[in-house]
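Appendix B. One record, verbatim.
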Amino acid sequence: MKILIKAARIIDRSSSYHGKVMDCLIEEGVITRIDDTIDESDGYEVRHDGLCISPGWVDFKASFNDPGFEYRGDLTSGLDDASLGGFTHVGVLPNDNPVCDQKTAVEYKVRKAENHAVSLHPIGALSKGMEGSVLAEMYDMYQAGAHWFSDDQHEMNDGLLSRALSYSGSFDGRIIVSPQSRAMVQHFEVNEGIASLKTGLRGHPYLSEITTLYRAIEIAKYTQRPLHVTGISSRHSLPLLEKAHAEGVSITSDVHVMNLCFNENATLDFDTRFKVNPVLRTEEDRLALVEAVKNNIIQAVVSDHRPYVLDEKNIEFDQASFGCPQIKTMYGGLLTLTDLGIDTVVDILSNRNRKTFEIEERSIKADQAADLTLFTPNGMYQPSKNDSQGLIPYAISELQGQVIGTIHRNKATFNLP
């Protein structure tokens, strides 16, 4: 397969071509030439107004519901959506049925995704059944291809986290924890504050997040093992992260795209598309999280993609499931509803997310395997009411920017008419 990308602005701070408009020739999955002008009559030519290319984008928090919940979508449809969203690498959560807590479950995901244009990175469960009692078969899963381990939104007791961090050091596994605790509040729907006051729904206090985060940092410090914290939602968590970095604690963190794009006001009319975990907090929190991303206090941004069917969301707010589909609209949401800017958004999705989740870094240069996302900041994307059954939270809005396609694993996908 030969592909000629014409007049594309390269966004890759690690490349000598960063910021330049160049032609790029790809042959059999390898970038063979980058030049001002390339004429190649027998290749598939890609042209688009305002076309840009970057190293392929990474999202490391998506639920694909396979096996066990295929009525919401499966691994193949999830990877297809990831490709349409511009991603060439996706970390897939273990919250299936049965839970991905053993070698055969990891092998199933790897095998089913091996021929897709998107690389799937299976995340194994930390504890058996994600019940928080006994460590799962982490080493066996590691050998099968799961290098990261998480119990998703399930709370983890301090002893289990300490054992998981210590044990994972013997084979260089990586641990992900969510700073959400049920100890302070068992049931919640929205942020504790204006949202809970005006709706009468049960609120979630930011104090729950910072107390859990503090304990996780102290355990990482004690075990001297790296730890990743997923789903930071409160500005009050940021000083804890800054202090940990200053003390040399090996800790990284991410924030969900919803918490960068929306605040608690989105829940005031009981729209269940905005029922997410962690909850949407204040506008002050949202703005502080955006600044924390800019300043690398928070290293990564993830989608927390969770597709559902209408029966699970089109019901009373307190009965609806947490989460929403995000992976197809993450780029447009960040570009439209934050002030991060095109270069920063792309740097996060391509380079910073790669570094955080230890995926091989790719620079756009000759003789490099093509792992690319093609996109434009121009134009507008209108999410369809049919997209994920109308559950995408931007379904009534136009989003700036369009994903044009991806090139990865000697496969190309394009969203061109």
